[in-house]
Design a protein that fits this description.
The protein has ten helices and no strands. The protein is mostly helical.
Length: 233
Amino acid sequence: MTATSSKIEALKRQREMEVKKKKNQSPFGIIITGMVITIYLALINYNLDFSSYWIIGILMGITLQRSRFCFAASFRDPIMVGSTSLLKAVLLAFIVSTIGFFIIQLRASVANPDYLITELPGQFNPVGLHTALGAILFGTGMVVAGGCASGVLIRIGEGHAMQLVVLIGFIIGATLGAAHFPFWDGVLISKTPVVHFPNHIGFFPSLILQLLLLCGLYFIADWYDKKNNIMTT
């Protein structure tokens, strides 16, 4: 028993000697911070709106990186490790955005009682078979690529060079999709209806219905996490 323990300790010491000290990242942080400030000051002189977008983008990037927020992981983790922490974060984001868009669209409809869907703030697109097919293709692509668009950009920023291949694929796919969209729009998309629940049941019932659905999914996700999360067992 003592001999085994000695061997384990010797292996630990050997491993510690083999592990290289991590490089100090402070100089890189200082350089990048200086670049961010320089670009911000340049944008202020050029266009005040652009400088605001730059800072908002930086803050969003920091938030995404520190929170490890990724749509792909939010749907992958419950199946692979039983964790629904990211899925619950996505559901909370939907709840907040639902309330926000409700307020914005309600104010617009009050200002113009005879509104058309196209006159309300937001994007309204047809829902049909193409929606399901697109979701399946994009979901499959996210799993194969190892992340969604935000996850890929985060990993590129962290220095994962392989994710550059995924980014190139994003660019190629988006370019081809934009080029072929008129064809699919004429064949399938434009022939499916645009669904806007407030037109059928009103704004407040639509809000309550969606919040109940999202809250129900949140509690189910929380229950699932407690039952299946292998990271806490």
